[in-house]
Design goal:
The complex is a heterodimer of chains A (about 170) and B (about 400).
Chain A (H helix, E strand, L loop, with lengths): L3 H12 L3 E5 L5 E5 L4 H10 L7 E9 L8 E9 L4 E9 L5 E3 L8 H12 L2 E3 L40
Parallel strand pairs in A: 2-5, 6-7
Antiparallel strand pairs in A: 1-2, 3-4, 4-5
Chain B lengths: L1 H11 L14 E5 L11 E7 L2 E8 L7 H5 L8 H5 L6 H16 L5 H29 L3 H22 L19 H25 L3 H7 L7 H6 L4 H6 L6 H4 L20 H24 L18 H6 L1 H11 L7 E9 L4 E9 L6 E5 L1 H5 L3 H5 L4 H10 L4 H5 L1
Antiparallel strand pairs in B: 1-2, 2-3, 4-5, 5-6
Helix pairs in contact in B: 4-5, 5-6, 5-12, 5-17, 6-7, 7-12
Membrane topology (chain B): Peripheral membrane protein
Subunit structure (chain B): NDH-1 is composed of 14 different subunits. Subunits NuoB, C, D, E, F, and G constitute the peripheral sector of the complex.
Pfam family, one (chain B): Complex1_49kDa
Chain lengths: ~170, ~400
C-alpha cells in the first residue's frame, strides 16, 4: 500500500519543477501541472511499474472568473486499481488560450468526458477527433457552466440573492 | 423443383435487363430517441450493411437538466432531490452517496446504526436496480414471464422505501448527518419478509433464464468486451466485473461500514451479455447476504449524528426548544457554515462507480459540483460492442449495459 507521500515523491523525482501545489485534501493526493506536461504525466503514471495508474475516473473543469490568467482549471481524477490509490491533477488555463491536449490516446473514456467539458466550459481539447457538444444542442452559442451565465432570469426582482442562492 | 422455378423466373426476365445487381450500400437506421427498447430518451444512429451493424453513433442529452448548474445555487440539503433523478432505478444509493459526500466535507461521523440502515437501503436499491435490468433484458429477448414475475419483488422493495421515507421512486431518503427517522417496526417486518421470500423468487427467476436455450442463444457471446478495453472505456460496476475485473468501490474504498460485512464480488470472464446478466443475478444474492448481516447485527443507538448545526432537528424539538428552532431555521435557509475544501467521494451505484466531486468555497451552495455518472462514461463503448452484430443483438446489449437516461444526461 503506497502512501500519498511516496506517490508524490515518485512524481516529483520524475517531473521536478513541472508539478506543484501538492496537497491531500480528504486523503486524496492533489497537485497541479502544466498543459505541456499533462499528457507525459499521465503516460508516465500509467506506464510506471509500481504506480500502475490505469484508470481514468473523471475529467471535468472548474471556472474561477476572478483569478486572472488562471480562469479555468481542468481536473483529472485518476485511480490505480492495482494499488488502490486515487490522485487528482489540475491544469490551470487562461481564458484567452483555453487549449489542452486530449487524453484519448491513453484512455478511450476521455472522449465523452472531454466533449462534456468542452460543451459546458468551452475548454478546447487539441487533437480530439470529434469535439462537438454532447449534452446541449449544437446551435447553442455559449458554454453554460461558466460563472457569467446565471441560472435564473437576471431581470427578476422578486428573488434576492442573499435569500435564494449566491 | 426449386431450380426449375428459378429457371422459369430467369426465362421470364426481359433479356436486356440482365442479372440483378446488388450495390453494396449502407442503410442508416435511427434507433431512438423514442424507441421501446432504449428505455429512455437517447438516440443511436446505426449504419447497417444488410443485417449487420457497421458503425454507430450515439446522440444523448435529450433530458439534460443542468443539475450541475442548478446545484450551484442550492443549499446542500436541497441537492439530494437532484441526485434522485439521476439513476432513478436506485435513488437511495445516489441520496446516500450525496449525504456521505457532504458529511465528508463537514467532517461529520455518523453513528453505526445510521450507517447500517444506509447499507440496508443501498443494498435494497441495488437489488431493485438489478431486478429491473435483468427483467428488462428478459423482455428484450422475448421472455415476458420472468419480468412480470420478478416485478412484484421490486414493488415490495418500493413499499419498504415508502415505509421509510414516504416516497417510492425519487426517494430523497436520509439526511445530511444520518437518517430522517429510525426503521419502524413495519419496515423491519417488511424487510424480513422480503428476505424470506426473495430467495425463492430469485431462484425461480434463475431457473427460467440461466440455462434457457433460447435465452442463451440470444446473449452468450453477444457484446463481449475484454477487460483491457473495458478499463480503457472507464467501465465500472457489474459491467466491468463481467469482463473479469474485480473492482468494487464497496471493497476498495469502504464507506458506511461496508468493511463490517462479508460478501463476495462475482466476476465474469468474457464480458458478454450473459456474463453481465449472471453477475447482476449473483450480486442480488450478495446484497441479500449483506442485508441479512446488517439486520442481524443492527446496532442500538442514535440514527443521526450529534451535529445539531447540520442535522435538521426533530419537529417536536423545534416547537419546544429555542436552540432547535434556531438550527432549524438556519439549516432550512441554508445558512450552515461549510468549510472550504474539495471532496471526491465515490459509492458503488447500481451500474458503477458513482462519484461526487464537490468544491466548496465556504458558501451556502457548492462552488462547483460534478457528478461522475457511470453510464455516461461506459455508454461510449456501445458502438464498439455491437459492431458486426445484428440489430436484435444491439437491443440486447443496450439493455444489459443498464444505461439509465436520467443518469446519462444529468
Amino acid at each position: 500500500m503506497l502512501t500519498n507521500e511516496e506517490v508524490a515523491q515518485i512524481i516529483i523525482n520524475q517531473f521536478g519543477e513541472a508539478v506543484s501545489d501538492f496537497d491531500d485534501p480528504y486523503d486524496l493526493l492533489t497537485f497541479s501541472t502544466s498543459r505541456e506536461q499533462i499528457i507525459p504525466l499521465i503516460t508516465f503514471l500509467k506506464a510506471h511499474p509500481t504506480l500502475q495508474v490505469g484508470f481514468l475516473t473523471d475529467i471535468t473543469a472548474i471556472h474561477y472568473p476572478d483569478s486572472v490568467g488562471k480562469e479555468f482549471c481542468v481536473v483529472y481524477h485518476l485511480h490505480s486499481l492495482t494499488n488502490n490509490f486515487r490522485l487528482r491533477t489540475k491544469v490551470y488555463l487562461s481564458v484567452d488560450d483555453i487549449h489542452i491536449p486530449t487524453a484519448i490516446p491513453l484512455f478511450a473514456s476521455a472522449n465523452w468526458m472531454e466533449r462534456e467539458t468542452f460543451d459546458l466550459f468551452g475548454v478546447i481539447f487539441d487533437g480530439h477527433p470529434d469535439l462537438r457538444r454532447i449534452l446541449n444542442m449544437e446551435e447553442m452559442d455559449y458554454h453554460p457552466m461558466r460563472k457569467e451565465y446565471p441560472l435564473e432570469d437576471g431581470t427578476r426582482e422578486d428573488k434576492i440573492d442573499s435569500l435564494f442562492g449566491r | 423443383m426449386v431450380s426449375e422455378e428459378l429457371n422459369i423466373t430467369k426465362k421470364n426476365l426481359p433479356a436486356e435487363q440482365g442479372p440483378v445487381q446488388y450495390v453494396n450500400e449502407l442503410t442508416t437506421l435511427n434507433l431512438g430517441p423514442t424507441h421501446p427498447a432504449t428505455h429512455g430518451i437517447f438516440q443511436n444512429i446505426l449504419q447497417m450493411d444488410g443485417e449487420k451493424i457497421v458503425s454507430g453513433e450515439q446522440t444523448i442529452g435529450y433530458i439534460h437538466r443542468a443539475f450541475e448548474k442548478i446545484a450551484e445555487r442550492r443549499p446542500f440539503y436541497q441537492i439530494t432531490t437532484l441526485t434522485d433523478r439521476m439513476n432513478y432505478c436506485s435513488s437511495p444509493i445516489n441520496n446516500m452517496g450525496w449525504h456521505m459526500t457532504v458529511e465528508k466535507l463537514l467532517g461529520i461521523e455518523i453513528p453505526k446504526r445510521a450507517q447500517y440502515i444506509r447499507v440496508i437501503l443501498m443494498e435494497l436499491a441495488r437489488m431493485a436496480d438489478h431486478l429491473i435490468c435483468n427483467g428488462i433484458l428478459g423482455v428484450d429477448t422475448g421472455a415476458f414471464t420472468g419480468f412480470l414475475y420478478i416485478y412484484q419483488e421490486r414493488e415490495n422493495i418500493y413499499e419498504i422505501y415508502e415505509e421509510i421515507c414516504g416516497a417510492r421512486l425519487t426517494t430523497n431518503m436520509g439526511r445530511i448527518g444520518g437518517m430522517e427517522r429510525d426503521l419502524s417496526p413495519t419496515a423491519i417486518r417488511k424487510i424480513n419478509e422480503l428476505l424470506d421470500r426473495f430467495p425463492k423468487v430469485l431462484t425461480e427467476f434463475e431457473n427460467l433464464f440461466n440455462r434457457n436455450r433460447i435465452f442463451m442463444d440470444r446473449v452468450v457471446n453477444v457484446g463481449g468486451i475484454s477487460a483491457e478495453r473495458a478499463l480503457s472505456y472507464g467501465f465500472t460496476g457489474p459491467n466491468l466485473r463481467a469482463a473479469g475485473v474485480d473492482y468494487d468501490v464497496r471493497v476498495m474504498n469502504p464507506y458506511s461500514s461496508y468493511q463490517d460485512f462479508e460478501f463476495d464480488i462475482p466476476v465474469g470472464q468474457s464480458g458478454d451479455t450473459y456474463d453481465r446478466f449472471m453477475v447482476r443475478n449473483e450480486e442480488m444474492w450478495q446484497s441479500m447476504r449483506i442485508i441479512r448481516q446488517a439486520m442481524n447485527n443492527l446496532p442500538e443507538g442514535a440514527y443521526y449524528a450529534d451535529a445539531p448545526q447540520y442535522y435538521l432537528p426533530p419537529k417536536q424539538e423545534v416547537y419546544k426548544n429555542m436552540e432547535a428552532l434556531i438550527y432549524h431555521f438556519k439549516i432550512v435557509m441554508g445558512e450552515i457554515d461549510a468549510p472550504v475544501g474539495e471532496v471526491y467521494h465515490a459509492v458503488e451505484g447500481g451500474n458503477g462507480e458513482l462519484g461526487f466531486y464537490l468544491i466548496s468555497d465556504g458558501g451556502r451552495a457548492p462552488y462547483r459540483l460534478h457528478f461522475r455518472r457511470p453510464c455516461f462514461i461506459y455508454y461510449q463503448a456501445y458502438p464498439e460492442m455491437c459492431k458486426g452484430l445484428t440489430l436484435s443483438d444491439a437491443i440486447v446489449i443496450m439493455s444489459s449495459m443498464n444505461v439509465i437516461a436520467g443518469e446519462l444526461d444529468a
